[in-house]
């Protein structure tokens, strides 16, 4: 990927994050997750009771390759709330179990 292409992908990612209060970059879709970590993250988000946007990184290899560079987070899924990186599956699930994720999600909508 050229520098110009990478800059465009980064701009597209930042736009997605800004335009969606809650967005999950995941493998697969919420109705058909393609990995256990994505499935657990979707389950936690659904438990919060609010709608969320998602990007299937398996259908967007350019995003899959570039997103880890944006916020220095190498793994997927990645959850963003109000343009802030929350983290991956472990953090999402831990926050959910402690009731923190519900508070963050409710404050975002």
Order of strands, main sheet, comes to 4-1-5-6
Helices, by number, come to 5
CATH architecture: 3-Layer(aba) Sandwich
- Rounded to an integer in angstroms, the radius of gyration calculated over CA atoms is 13 Å
Q: Within the CATH hierarchy, at the fold level, what is the topology?
A: Glutaredoxin
What does this structure look like?
It is a single chain. The chain is an alpha+beta fold and about 110 residues long. It has a single domain (about 5-109), classed as Glutaredoxin. About 50% of the residues lie in helices and about 20% in strands. The chain contains five helices and six strands, in the order αβββαβαββαα. It has helices spanning about 5-20, 35-45, 60-70, 90-95, 100-109, and strands at about 20-25, 30, 30-35, 55, 80, 85. A four-stranded mixed beta sheet has the order 4-1-5-6. The longest helix is centred in the N-terminal third of the chain and has 17 residues, at about 5-20. It is globular and about 40 Å long.
């Amino acid at each position: 990927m050229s520098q110009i292409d990478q800059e465009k992908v980064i701009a597209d990612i930042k736009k997605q994050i800004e335009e969606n209060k809650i967005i999950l970059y995941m493998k697969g879709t919420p109705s058909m997750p393609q990995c256990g970590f994505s499935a657990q993250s979707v389950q936690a988000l659904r438990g919060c009771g609010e709608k969320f946007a998602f990007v299937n990184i398996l259908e967007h290899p350019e995003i899959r390759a570039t997103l880890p560079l944006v916020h220095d987070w190498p793994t997927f899924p990645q959850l963003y709330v109000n343009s802030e990186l929350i983290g991956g599956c472990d953090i999402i699930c831990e926050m959910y179990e402690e009731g923190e994720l519900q508070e963050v999600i409710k404050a975002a909508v």
